[in-house]
Structure formats: structure tokens, C-alpha cells
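Collaborator request, handled under Task 6.
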Amino acid sequence: MTVTRYAIGFLCVLPLATTVSAAPPASLIEGYAAAAKAEGSGFAGFSAARGETLHRTEFAGGKPDTPACTSCHGKDARGPGKTRTGKAIEPMAASASPARYQDPAKVEKWFKRNCNEVLGRECTPREKGDWLAYMAGQ
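C-alpha cells returned to the collaborator:
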């Protein structure tokens, strides 16, 4: 009887233990916040609205075939995207791809590559945090 109770308890808790957070890790957000504050730009927090604007705006500074994040990632962050060569890209929304933002090194790698391609420069810490705030709400 006791073994059965433990087994039932374990099976009830198991899904909680294996669930991946649907939001970027707090340490990633805190790192961008600290960097934004250090820039001395009067940082007062991240904005999902600014992140959405960054995601949807077309820029002239990057590559002509990727003027906006939506060029490859699509207008709906919960849906898949596609590279210029046709390779599928998993959804950017944290709700659709919860493991996407769990590795800070990968997040930085893709920010560096994609910001340079779209903006023609690296994204600022505030832009990164704003964009992540937008993706965390999708």
C-alpha cells in the first residue's frame, strides 16, 4: 500500500519536474538588464511593445534580402519560419518552442548573426531584452 502511494505521488509530480519553462531564463534577462543599465541610457525595464516593433520593422542597414526579423521568422512568432534557402525555422515564441531560450550561448550566437543581417549591427542589450520580452509573451 505504501509503495503504491509513493508510485502515484511520483507519477503526479513527474510532469512538473520535466516541464521546460516557456519563458527565457531569468538569468538571461537579468544579464541584459545589467548591461542596459551599464550603458547609462536611463534604462527602466524591458518592453514587449518595443520588442514587437523591433521584430516587425524593416531596416535598411542590414542585408537587402533580410530587412526585418519577419523576413525569415514570419509575422506570427508562434508559427514556423523559413530561411532564404528554404530551411525550416522553429517558431520563435517561447510558448511554441520552450527550449529555444535555455542556452545563453546559443541565444547570443543567434542575436549576433541575426542583428547583423537585419540591422547591419549588433543589437543593444535593451533591444535584446525587449525582443525577448515580446517572445516570452507570445
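The cover message to the collaborator said: "Residues 15 and 48 are 29 Å apart (CA to CA). Confidence is low (pLDDT under 50) at residues 1-20. Please let us know whether this matches your experimental observations."
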